[in-house]
Amino acid sequence: MYAFEYHRPTDVKQAAELVAQLEETKFLAGGQTLLPTMKMRLAAPANLIDLGQVAELRGIERSADTLSIGAMTLHAEVANSADVRTAIPALTELAELIGDPHVRNRGTIGGSVANNDPAADYPAACLALNAAIVTNKRTIAADDFFQGIFATALDEGEIITKISFRVPSQAAYVKFRHPASRYALVGVFVAKHADGVRVAVTGSGANGVFRVPEMEQALSRNFAVAALDGISVPAEGMSSDIHADAVYRAHLVGVIARRAVQAAASSRA
Q1: Antiparallel, parallel or unpaired: β 210-211 and 25-28
Q2: Using CB atoms within 10 A of its CB, is residue 3 exposed (0-12), middle (13-18) or buried (19+)?
Q3: Residue 267: what pLDDT?
Q4: Calculated CA dihedral for residues 200, 123, 118, 9, nearest 10 degrees
Q5: Cβ count within 10 A of residue 222
Q6: Are 36 and 30 a contacting pair, CB within 8 Å?
Q7: Quick check: 193 pLDDT over 90?
Q8: Rounded mean pLDDT of 109-113?
Q9: What whole-number distance in Å separates Cα of residue 264 and Cα of residue 73?
Q10: pLDDT for res 123
Q11: Rounded to whole angstroms, how far apart are CA atoms 122 and 209?
C-alpha cells in the first residue's frame, strides 16, 4: 500500500469541500473493495476521505410508497431493519445474502452502489425497485445511473447520500452464488409495481447489471412463472470466465428468473 493522507469529515458539506480542495482523492465507505485494491497497489489515492463519521449518511426512513436508506447504512443494518422487512422483505433477504458477517458489518449500501461491481447485489435491486440515487448535487434514476462495469453516472467528487426505493406490491431476489466469494454468478430481482413488472439481472452481463424487457412485458400481463415459458436470454452479451461461460449464464438467468417469480408471487413484497 502506498502512502496517503487520511481525512475524516463529520458532514457532507465538509466532505465535498475536501474533495474539491485536494487532488487524487477517494471516498472510503465500508472499504470492502477499496482497501484490498490499495493493499495490492492497484489503487493509490493521495488522499482518502473516510465517510464513516458522517451521521447524516446513515439511517432508514419509510413513507407510504418509498423506502429511503442512507448511503453509509451497513448491509447488516438493512438485513436486520424492521422497517425494511415490513416494506420490502426481498431487500432484507438480499442483504442477508451478501458476503459473510464481516462483510455485512463493514460494507455499506452506498459503497456497493457507487462501486457498481458487475456481480454485486444492490444494483439489481435498484433497477427492479425503480430506485432514485440521491447525491449531494442531484437525484439520478437507477435506469440512468448504472453505465457499465464499475461505471456510473456519478461525477468526480459527487457523494451518494441515500437511495430511495419504490415499495412494490410483490418482489423477490434469488441468486446463484459463488461458493467462496458469495458474489452472484447470476442474481435476478423481480418486482411487481402498479405500473408493471421490472426484472433486473446481476452477475452475468458482460456490461454489468441489466433489465430484461421481454420478461417484464410478459410478467406485466400475467404475473406467473408460466408467463416466462419460451423466453430466453441470448448468450451474446453474457460474461464468461472460469466459473461459468456465457451459455451457462444465459441459461441460468432463465432458471433463476422463474424461481424469483415463484418466490415473489407467493409473497406480499
Answers
A1: unpaired
A2: exposed
A3: 78
A4: 180
A5: 11
A6: no
A7: yes
A8: 97
A9: 25
A10: 97
A11: 10
> How many angstroms separate the CA atoms of 260 and 187, rounded?
9
Residue type, 54: V
Domain segments of the chain: what residues?
A: 1-53, 170-265
Domain 170-265 -> CATH class: alpha beta
Residue 5, amino acid: E
Percent of the chain with pLDDT over 90: 91
Strand ranges in the chain using DSSP code E only, listed in sequence order: 5-7, 25-28, 47-50, 60-62, 66-70, 132-135, 139-141, 160-166, 170-177, 184-193, 196-202, 210-211
Query: For the segment 36-60, what is each residue's pLDDT rounded down to a tens digit?
Result: 999 999 999 999 999 999 999 999 9
Which is nearest to 95 in space by CA: 162, 189, 201?
189
Q: 218 versus 177: which is more confidently predicted?
A: 218
> What's at 24, amino acid-wise?
E
- All three cell numbers of 219: 410478467
Provide CATH code, domain 1-53: 3.30.43.10
Sequence-separated (6 or more) residues with CB below 8 Å from residue 93: 172, 173
Model's pTM, two decimal places? 0.95
Placement of cell 482523492 in the chain: 25
d(CA 214, CA 138): 31
Tell me phi and psi for residue 147, to 5 degrees. Answer: -125, 25
pLDDT of residue 80: 97
